[in-house]
Structures are given as structure tokens and as C-alpha cells.
Amino acid sequence: VQLEPWPVVSVNSMRIPFLSPPTDGEETPLWRHPEVGLIDWLIQLSFPLLLPLERMTTAALSGDLSLLLELRGKMDQRDGVQHDSVFSEWRLTLLQMSRADGSTLEARLYHPPGSGDTLLPVVLWFHGGGYTLSTARDSHGATFAAELAAMVAEAPKVAWLSVEYRLAPEHPFPAAPLDGATALEYICDASRAASIKIDSSAIHVAGASAGAGVAAAVATDAARRGVAVRSLFLDEPCLDPRANSASFAVNSATTIAPVAWLRWSWSVYYPFEHADAVSDRFFVLPRLAEPDVLGSPAHPTTLVITASADPLRAEGAAYAEALRAAGKLEAHIEAKGSHVIALTLDKEARRRALTAWAALLHRGAGREGSGPRE
After folding, report:
1. What phi and psi, each to the nearest 5 degrees, are found at residue 130?
2. How does pLDDT run across 231-265, given as a tens digit for each residue?
């Protein structure tokens, strides 16, 4: 991937890029941001008390990762309780998959109530967390799974496979997409998939935030290798390591996805000395959106969600437009509000997003010409 080089400085053996501020936008304070409503604003006021990402970033930039590890533990505990509650009536199978280096990749496979021994379509899910936080026991994905199941009660049921992919800075790129590809290859094997009650011909890939970045890389790689993925769902995707778009400036007052944290996360996830060796397989923007990459007939139909007050808005919208030009876009739906919470607070956008996603899951999406486009 050819990007303009960034100035870097070594901080306790970590290469930290420092980006110049964008020149094509100005920060809008939260209290007068036209896309941030009262509830959104109140959530953002309290969010740093629950998850002090800016304080963690400051410590990490000085080489201290102890707060990062502490936040991981707190997120796993808090999110895990909600995740387990949502899936309490689903059948859980803990999977262990072998990586190429002999280590083990873990994933959590859930079958909805009443599915019995039926081979089900499956959503291969990648959690968010800026490539540095969260786990496969995330509440964001679990809530999606439960709402989709409730919406499509009369339609075929869908299983949910949440992947415990490796995180930076311990495991920089391409560890996460390699784990994603390992999980995809695992369930593509027809006999193995049948043994865990999965239909290997009906695999759908999805993710949120950084997980959407992993999902896009995995699905694109699969298409280029001729591996069939029926659909791709990207919720507020984190795709561009340059982290310097206009929306990074305009929406930089957010406390839910602080710009300093996003940039630090990219710096430890995607250091160039690691990226260059694998740029011919797993892509990020801008390479991810180029016509020759999206032009594969096997590339899945894709649903893209963006949030209007999100630093990641511009890169998600740019990717959606590239997909549209390639004839691979199912819909681009924008929710009003901030990263992660916009699709919760904007009820109409959530209804549209889940309705469109349910349609993809149940009509064999990903094949050329399937379904309406927005």
C-alpha cells in the first residue's frame, strides 16, 4: 500500500507517527454540533469516566501500556456480562482453530433457540475497539444478533460467530485480518461446517468500527481468492491509516472515539515495516477502494453505515461511494450522531439498517444483481 510517509519518533521502541492537523475542516464543539443531540451530548460527557481513552493514549505515547491493559479487562467484564445476557438462550460452541504458526485462534459460535440440527447461514462477526481494545464477548454485536433474530422470526434462522482476533500493539497488522481469514477458511470447509451446524455456502461477514475494517479486508481477500462470501456489513468502518480526513477535524471533539486515540491505534496496528510485506493480500484505504480491488465478480454486496458526527465518517462514505461505482453497494445509511451510539439513538436509521441487513442475510446476497440499491 503506497501512502505518503509520516514523520515518526521512537517512544520506548514503538514507532509513533505524528500527523499534521487537517486543513479542510474546523472542530465543532459538542455543545453546538448540529449532529449531536442532547442525549448524545450527555453520554459523551460521562463517557471518559467509564473509558478514559484520551488518558490511556497519553500514557501509551510515553510507553506505559498498563492503562490499556486495565481498560481491556474492564471492557471484557462490563461488555461480557451484557453479551452473555443477550445470548443466554442461544446455544454456545467454543471453537479453537489452528493458525499457520501453530497457535490457537478462539471464536464463539452461537445458534439461536429452536435451530436444532439445521445447517444455518452464519454471520462471521468482528468486534470494534480501535484494533487495540475489546473482545469477542462484545455487547454491540450481541445486540445486533438479537435484534436481527427478532426481526426475522418467520425467516430462516442465522448463527453468529464472533472471532477473538489478536490486538495491537502486541500483534500489529496483519495479525487481525489473518485471524479473520483463518476463521473464514475454517467454516468454508463443508464437512467441518456441517459438524458445527453451519451452512458453508451461506457465510456473511460483518463488523463494527475497527472490526468493520477487519471485515472489509477479509471479505475483499476472500473475493480475490474466489472464496464465496454472501454479504458484507460494515458499521462505521475504521479503514484509513492516514487518519486525517475532514471529518477528523470537524468531529474531533468527540470523547467516544477521540482523535488522539484513533491515531495512536493506527500507529501501533499498522506500522509500515509490517504492512509492506503483506500489502498484496490485505488492504486498507485508499487501496481497498480502488476499482481493480472491488472489481472481482465475487466481491460481496455491501451495506455501509456511517455516523454524521463521527471522525470516521468521511472514510466510510468514501468507501461506500467506491462500492457504489463498482456496483457492490447495497446501501449507505447514515445515522445522526456520534460514533457507536448514533445507530442506537437514531431509531429510523437503525430500523433501515437492520431491515436492509436482514434482507441481505435471507435472500442470498452477494450474487450479482441481487436486491435493491440505495
Report:
1. 65, 25
2. 999 999 999 998 989 999 999 999 999 999 999 99
d(CA 269, CA 16): 11
Say if residue 311 is preceded by a cis peptide, omega within 30 of 0: no
**Beta partners for 76?**
none
Kindly report each contact of residues 8-16 with a partner whose C-beta sits within 8 Å and lies 24 or more positions away, as own/partner. Answer: 11/61, 11/62, 11/63, 12/62, 12/63, 14/63, 14/169, 14/267, 14/268, 15/267, 15/271, 15/273, 16/61, 16/264, 16/267, 16/268
Fill in the DSSP letter of residue 106.
E
- The pLDDT score that the predictor gives to residue 6 is 32
The pTM (predicted TM-score) of the whole model is: 0.90
Q: Which residues of 311-321 are buried (b: 16+ CB within 10 A; e: fewer)?
A: bbbbbbbbbbe
> Highest-confidence range of 1-5, 207-211, 356-360, by mean pLDDT?
207-211
d(CA 338, CA 231): 25
Angle at 219 between CA 131 and CA 190, to 5 degrees: 115
Answer yes or no: are the C-beta atoms of 342 and 332 closer than 8 Å. no
pLDDT digits (tens, 9 = 90+) for 81-132: 999 999 999 999 999 999 999 999 999 999 999 899 999 999 999 999 999 9
